[in-house]
Amino acid sequence: MSMDEVDLPGNDEWGTVGGPTYLTDIVRVRSGAEERTGRINQPRHRYRPARQVQTRVVMASLLTFVHARKGSLIAFRVKDNNDFTTGSDHVGTGAFGDVEFAVAVSGTQVYQLVKKYTSGPSTTSRKIKKPVGSTVKIGIDGVEKSSPADFTVSESTGDVTFVAVLSGGESLTWGGEFRVPVRFEKSVEELFAIINQGPDFLGVRDLGMVELLDDDPVPYPFNPLGDKNHGTATAVTLALTDGIFHVFENTLSCDVTLPPSTDLPGGGPYFSLKADGSASVVVKADGGSPTIDTLTTGQHSMLWLGKDVAAVRKWHSLK
């Protein structure tokens, strides 16, 4: 995506109204029961100015900013005045131990910043792609580190790179400020109309902004028209985005691993498998266990999701 690493001008004067949105499919049956499926893993934030009337100086800088971004074409950063730090109140100064963003993996030096929102038993982790570098503080196992001697942070990706190779298992924490990557909504071309309210006071009809997400969506709905020939592969992990029909021409036994069933609604078929090779095709659940079915030469199986007596959703094979 096209992105300018600049902040919306006059943000503190304008203020913002808005917040996080989620996309959830809700299916209701006649009994009143519901089936809910999340379509995105990260919240998408939407904003508009809290105050529409401003001085001519502020309006001039905003008009220039809109032209430079070519309306909705080029993204930029905005400060969410209600949630822009790792502080417990979301606006206070961040400390290096505020959020554990990763547990170190041996030999890995680059890690993505996240902010966590915990209430009761549930936690949502939000990727932080636009930290304010001068405010970022990093800790390892409760000890604050210094930049650039111990780490660097990218203001364009939110990646933290450690200078020393970590041994693995260390608790990596951070604190600081961040911004939200957004673009003007499509309607900006139609609704960015300057309203003259006096010689020194101007306003705009609307100026909506929407957050940009590069996170992979929850893979549902799947592609019912896709197909794939896996040839002589001996190990395959299926993805819903690969399509429904899969052919195997393996000469040695092939293990086929299905995607996790927990985030998918019951029903199907999700996959149609055809064994065209001389060896068996062993179909397994996520994690490699249990075995759902074994196909021999010429056999065909349709894979569905259904609940067992304990109301746990599992994969089922119908030949």
Structural overview:
- This protein has 319 residues and is mainly beta.
- It folds into 3 domains: 3-80 and 181-210, no CATH class; 99-176, no CATH class; 227-318.
- The chain is built from 3 helices and 30 strands.
- The protein has helices at residues 11-14, 56-68, 188-191; strands spanning 3-7, 16-21, 24-28, 34-38, 44-49, 53-55, 75-78, 99-103, 110-112, 114-119, 122-127, 130-131, 137-140, 143-145, 151-153, 159-162, 171-175, 178-184, 194-196, 201-204, 209-211, 227-229, 235-237, 245-248, 254-257, 267-275, 281-284, 291-295, 300-307, 313-318.
- The strands form 8 sheets. Strands 1, 2, 5, 7, 12, 18 and 21 form a 7-stranded mixed sheet that branches.
